[in-house]
Amino acid sequence: MASQAGSRKSFIDSSIGLARSYGFHGLDLDWEYPSTLTEMANFGALLREWRVAVNNEARNTGRSPLLLAAAVFYSSNYYSLDYPVQTVANSLDWINVMAYDFYGPGWSDVTGPPASLFNPSSQVNADSGIRAWIQSGMPSKKIVLGFPFYGYAWTLADANNHGYFVPTTGSAISKDGSIGYKQIRQFIVQNGATTVHDTAVVGDYCYAGRTWIGYDDYPTIVTKVRYAKDKGCLVTLLGMLPWMTTGDFHEELHKYGVVISMWYLIMNK
To answer: Which tens digits make up the pLDDT trace of 52-70?
Structure first.
């Protein structure tokens, strides 16, 4: 779609029409991920043309312009391939930085924090990615930090070796190891699992027997919110994006108050 001017226009026009027909406030693009120089160029062209079309539609109809956002890689550099950051900054109202899925059974043969805020041993962490976006020219006030309402479960190679970055034999609980927050809480209770909050990486994990789960719990989310609002990365970000807020989100909300606390902190800067 993004490779040709005609198909870009068709997509843009239909997306604007769809948003208006349902009374949406805006549109969010999810391209995971432009992976060549050509695709990055096409990504930039799509955003530029989308912004022009949105502004023209608003001017012609007298309506407020639709908001434009995009879900992006945790860093402005996608495996040595740079996003067109200036175009992204000029075209979008904000970016949703997908600072999660750093470690998972499908691509990691050791345990690891799926969504670490920091990582002393690696540049793969949310703070490193946010700094890269800012240093590349993305205004901090257009950056939204994503965090997960799910985790990943591994099978430990040795039940007595249960920290971060230890050997595993594959996924646990589900085929790909993914597990929702509600299921994680149930696993902890039903198995008397040991829970650990690691302040160095800012992440949580639990284990029972040979099953090990990495995830974000209350203290991690609170720390991430404070990072976003209290100049944790030298500047204040626009906000936070929980992924995803369906299913057990509603059932856990009354019990843990994670999201209420999160948004309260953000809105009371």
So the answer is: 999 999 999 999 999 999 9
Count up the domains in the chain and report the number.
2
Of 32, 39, 251, 252, which one is the catalytic site residue? 32
Per residue in 214-237, pLDDT (tens digit) is 999 989 988 998 888 875 444 566
Tokens of 32: 């995971």
Contact by Cβ (8 Å): 155, 213: no
Active site residue 32: yes
Cα dist from 263 to 108, 149, 228, 269, whole Å: 32, 15, 11, 10
CATH number at residue 205: 3.10.50.10
- Would you state the pLDDT for residue 236? 64
Same domain, residue pair 66 and 105: yes
Q: Are 139 and 91 in contact (CB under 8 A)?
A: no
* Residue 163 phi, psi dihedral angles, 5° rounding: -95, -160
CATH of the domain at 229: 3.20.20.80
Q: Catalogue the E-assigned strands of 88-226.
A: 94-97, 143-148, 150-156, 168-171, 178-180, 194-198, 203-208, 211-215
- Radius of gyration for the chain, computed over Cα atoms and rounded to the nearest angstrom: 20
